[in-house]
Design brief:
Keywords: ATP-binding, Nucleotide-binding, Transport. The protein is an alpha/beta fold. It is built from twelve helices and 13 strands. The protein has two domains: about 220 residues, P-loop containing nucleotide triphosphate hydrolases (Rossmann fold), CATH 3.40.50.300; about 80 residues, Alpha-Beta Plaits. The N terminus is likely disordered.
Length: about 325
């Protein structure tokens, strides 16, 4: 649901043509002799959640800083709703909500004071700030801790405060660096629901995370980067349609292996606490068919489930290709 600006005391923004979220075209950035990002392309459309995936040192944080207009590219262009941060810095900053991987500021101030000060920085109307702050604290479940200094908050609570800080001015683009870090399982579910709601409101959301299993439930698409370059763009649906690895355990491992061999399926034995085999299946129909065949053959299947998410499967395949 779109925010009612009059209700929260923030004047409506003037209408301007939104040109499909946030984009980077052939951006490069070096630090001395280190080429952190080289001719990288990235696009996150409005109304969608786009995952940014890559190993440590791939250039993700440098790209995020350039998207947030906190770091200028050496070459290439960044646009936010069709605006270039180099020429429209103030307008672009109003449209971006930035959530770094740590809160990292004003730990002696209370959660309410931090959000109030951020609202002032964005020049929200003074009369509407208290209500807006209260709404944000409630949305991230920090109302009971509103008047506690940030330093006493747990890692997960600080993450929720950081998200509220990024949302205080109702940006059209949200950039999140490891937003699930430190969150308990319940809070992770709440984060997934909130991000999907924000996307439904028309926001462009970028999530950089190493927790790829979470991204399957959040993201509409993913951009994979490595060594400072874009290596693949893939929708989550396309990743799922490319197949994923399933892990299967049975009371009689030999009978399971024999049946899979009889069906002509290639599999591998997995080392772990429980004996299991794994194999790649193209879709849910293939998985359902195989499970039925195993049960009808009298194989005592004790577990049958995806061993990885769709985006994780793409990532591991890309890692294998790189090696």
């Amino acid at each position: 649901m779109t925010e009612n600006w009059d209700r929260i005391g923030i004047p409506a923004q003037p209408e301007s043509p939104r040109q499909d979220g946030i984009s980077a075209t052939a951006v490069s950035r070096s630090f001395g002799q280190v080429h952190a990002v080289e001719h990288m392309d990235f696009h996150a459309p409005s109304g969608k959640v786009t995952a940014l995936i890559g190993p440590n040192g791939a250039g993700k944080t440098t790209l995020l800083l350039m998207l947030a207009s906190l770091l200028a590219p050496d070459s290439g262009t960044v646009t936010v709703d069709g605006l270039d941060p180099q020429h429209h810095r103030a307008e672009v900053r109003k449209r971006i909500g930035w959530m770094p991987d740590t809160l990292g500021v004003w730990e002696s101030l209370t959660a309410r004071e931090i959000l109030t000060q951020i609202a002032r920085f964005y020049r929200l109307p003074k009369a509407g700030i208290p209500q807006r702050v209260t709404e944000m604290l409630d949305r991230v479940r920090l109302s009971d801790l509103a008047d506690q200094p940030a330093r006493v908050l747990s890692r997960g609570q600080q993450q929720r405060l950081s998200l509220a800080r990024a949302l205080i001015h109702d940006p059209s683009v949200l950039l999140l660096d490891e937003p699930a870090s430190g969150l308990d399982p319940g809070s992770r579910v709440e984060l997934r629901v909130m991000l999907r709601q924000l996307a439904a409101e028309g926001k462009s959301i970028v999530v950089s995370s190493h927790v790829l299993s979470e991204l399957d439930e959040i993201a509409d698409a993913a951009v994979f980067v490595n060594r400072g370059k874009t290596v693949r763009h893939q929708t989550t649906d396309a990743a799922a349609a490319s197949g994923r690895r399933y892990a299967i355990s049975a009371t009689d491992g030999a009978a399971l292996a024999a049946k899979l061999t009889d069906l002509g399926l290639a599999f591998r034995v997995e080392d772990g606490r429980r004996p299991a085999v794994s194999l790649v299946l193209l879709n849910d129909d293939d998985a359902a068919r195989l499970l039925r065949d195993l049960v009808l053959a009298g194989v005592g299947v004790s577990s049958f489930a995806p061993a990885s998410g769709a985006l994780e499967e793409t990532y591991m395949n890309l890692e294998g290709e790189r090696r």
